[in-house]
Amino acid sequence: MFVVFQCRHCDAIVGDATDWLKAVKDIDSIALGNITEGSVYVEKEPVRVTSQFRIDRGAEYLPLHCSKCDAVLGLYYLSTGRFDDDLRNSYLLHISELKSYQIPVLRMPSVDPGSPQKA
């Protein structure tokens, strides 16, 4: 299956599972290494936010907004402190702000060129 992630508010496609890094269950989010080009933005004057309340306390991040509807979809970690080095420079998208759909991957049966074919 191929999974596509969309903004829950406007259906804009923000990423897909080919860029999947990990699920971050402690903060109900998924981490992607890349996102769909032009799908999210940070403010023109980016404000570094230092988390105070979650498991990522002390981490610095930039809020990510949907380019189509401006909803806050997640965050982009600049530093992770003791939280999780794997997440630095990754896109963390909040599950509550996403919809997803699956595209089945069809596989054709292999054909032996030496076997007789049905007409």
From TrEMBL:
Q: Which GO terms describe its molecular function?
A: metal ion binding
The record's keywords, sorted A to Z, are:
Cell cycle, Cell division, Centromere, Chromosome, Metal-binding, Mitosis, Nucleus, Zinc
Q: Which Pfam families match?
A: Yippee-Mis18
Q: Which GO terms describe its cellular component?
A: chromatin; chromosome, centromeric region; nucleus
Q: Which residues cross the membrane?
A: none
**First-listed, main subcellular location of the protein, grouped into a coarse class:** nucleus
Q: Which domain of life is it from?
A: Eukaryota
Listed GO biological process terms: cell division; CENP-A containing chromatin assembly; chromosome segregation
Q: Which PROSITE patterns match?
A: MIS18 (PS51793)
Location of the Mis18 domain: 2-103
The compartments listed are: Chromosome, Centromere; Nucleus
Return the similarity comment. Belongs to the yippee family.
Q: What is this protein called?
A: Protein yippee-like
Source organism of the structure: Wickerhamiella sorbophila
- Which lineage do the record's taxonomy fields give for this organism? Eukaryota, Fungi, Dikarya, Ascomycota, Saccharomycotina
